[in-house]
């Protein structure tokens, strides 16, 4: 082997660069190829998960919820399957309610929606002058905070001064959490990232068609053109983006050869497949978290067999999901001391 083709020894600077992620070609002095790495190692117990080991913060008056309630309220309409599943449960609960003189169907519907969206529901007692129970109102869970002292609750709207409810007049229903017992946590929390990804995919697809300046294809030209024709084509392509895009483009080449102009798509097919995959996968995650049969949400089956009998799915869904939710709201009867919540016995649709 000659000295010219022999691999030279790397210098200290090149060795340091290679240890940091740069690849240095030792046999080629004409150019250097640099590579970079991304994605640092993440610990199992990150700073975000360490917060699960702490108690809910309080300001000597009320506790702050472990999850931002305004964020859960915004995420309610992030995905059509997410909001539709919650609305379905809310409507079925409200339809099964037998209104009493203390609780209206409108107040119960608001409490049911708060419980399903935020994991907390609050009923406020309104009493007459003699101290008797007049009615049970719905207090928005987004603005109610549990006080540090037992039995006390605060109204914290944010845009107005906070106020304290009369002690002993607010009753809380919570979805149990494994980290604390002060506030409830919604059951769909594990699928919230999928719902947000579903929204991001839709918004990205909208921007993809709105801006009109994405790299949709490559125009490869290798024919013979008159002077200035290439500049004219370049100018026509520049004018074809933005509002009024997807225009037709006419090109005439008298001396050109067959195949001299080629259109090579680079992003459309791949982006379409990726979009459909994200939408379907995130939809399945959300429906699994809500445990809602797809035929109850109007989803079109992908196969000819369909999803099965909708009446049987409704009966199973009512027994497995709606009846357990009914038992949660029956706890208000023990808290108030009267039968404020009462449900009708349901006859199965399959029967």
UniProtKB/TrEMBL annotation:
Protein species of origin: Novosphingobium clariflavum
Name listed for the protein in its UniProt record: Phage portal protein
InterPro entries given in the database record: PBSX_Proteobac (IPR030935), Phage/GTA_portal (IPR006944), Phage_portal_PBSX (IPR006430)
Basic residues biased stretches: 1-10
Pfam families named in the record: Phage_portal
Family (UniProt): Belongs to the phage portal family. PBSX subfamily.
Region (Disordered): 1-24
Stretches that traverse the bilayer: none
């Amino acid at each position: 082997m000659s000295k010219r083709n022999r691999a030279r020894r790397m210098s200290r600077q090149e060795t340091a660069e290679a240890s940091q992620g740069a690849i240095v070609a030792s046999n080629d002095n004409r150019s250097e190829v640099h590579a970079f790495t991304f994605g640092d190692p993440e610990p199992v117990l990150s700073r975000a998960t360490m917060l699960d080991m702490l108690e809910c913060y309080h300001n000597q008056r009320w506790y702050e919820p472990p999850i931002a309630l305004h964020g859960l309220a915004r995420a309610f309409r992030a995905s059509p399957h997410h909001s539709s599943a919650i609305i379905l449960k809310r409507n079925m609960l409200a339809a099964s309610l037998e209104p009493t003189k203390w609780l209206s169907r409108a107040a119960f519907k608001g409490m049911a929606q708060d419980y399903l969206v935020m994991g907390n529901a609050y009923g406020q007692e309104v009493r007459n002058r003699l101290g008797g129970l007049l009615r049970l109102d719905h207090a928005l869970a987004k603005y109610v905070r549990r006080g540090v002292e037992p039995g006390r609750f605060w109204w914290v709207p944010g845009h107005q001064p906070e106020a304290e409810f009369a002690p002993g007049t607010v009753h809380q229903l919570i979805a149990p959490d494994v980290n604390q017992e002060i506030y409830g946590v919604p059951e769909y929390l594990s699928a919230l990232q999928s719902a947000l990804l579903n929204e991001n995919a839709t918004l990205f697809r909208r921007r993809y068609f709105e801006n009109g300046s994405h790299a949709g294809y490559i125009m490869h030209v290798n024919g013979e053109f008159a002077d200035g024709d290439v500049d004219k084509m370049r100018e026509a392509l520049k004018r074809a983006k933005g509002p009024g895009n997807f225009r037709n483009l006419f090109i005439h080449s008298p001396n050109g050869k067959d195949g001299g102009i080629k259109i090579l798509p680079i992003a459309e097919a791949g982006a379409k497949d990726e979009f459909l995959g994200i939408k379907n996968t995130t939809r399945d995650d959300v429906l699994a978290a809500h445990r809602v049969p797809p035929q109850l949400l109007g989803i079109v089956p992908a196969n000819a067999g369909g999803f099965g009998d909708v009446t049987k799915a409704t009966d199973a869904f009512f027994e497995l999901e709606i009846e357990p939710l009914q038992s949660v709201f029956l706890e208000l009867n023990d808290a108030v001391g009267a039968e404020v919540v009462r449900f009708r016995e349901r006859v199965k649709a399959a029967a």
